[in-house]
Write a structure and sequence with these properties.
Structural class: alpha+beta
Low-confidence stretches: none
CATH architecture: 2-Layer Sandwich
Strand order of the largest sheet: 1-2-3-5-4
CATH superfamily: HIT-like
Distance between the termini: 32 Å
Number of helices: 2
Helix content: 10-25%
Number of strands: 5
Radius of gyration: 13 Å
């Protein structure tokens, strides 16, 4: 999708702090981090939300998150994975993305 922010990041049209890429997903540091580690993991194929995603896509995103959690040293103390869906769910970019947050104690509810 030509106007999708994340599609443009994946295509290299908009700079990002890439931390991981494979044939299915692209991961980069959030520009407005909500934790010391805040990485966005997005499928390369555009998908509006988790409601449009296959289990395989979401599973691959989760596998990338596990790998990144180990690389970032989050696996020992813990981390949070979040997928916001729709306007009321807090989804600000209409391209499925998984937030990997860690490096501080997480509270519930998140606010």
């Amino acid at each position: 999708m030509e106007n999708c922010l994340f599609c443009r990041i994946i295509a290299g049209e908009i700079p990002s702090s890439k931390v991981y890429e494979d044939e299915h997903v692209f991961a980069f540091r959030d520009i407005d981090p909500q934790a010391p580690t805040h990485i966005l993991i997005v499928p390369k194929a555009h998908c509006d939300s988790v409601m449009d995603a296959s289990a395989e896509t979401v599973g691959h995103m989760a596998d990338a998150a596990k790998l990144l959690a180990v690389r970032e040293g989050l696996n020992e103390k813990g981390f949070r994975l979040v997928i916001n869906t729709g306007d009321e769910g807090g989804q600000s970019v209409k391209h499925l993305h998984l937030h990997l947050l860690g490096g501080r104690s997480m509270q519930w509810p998140p606010g």
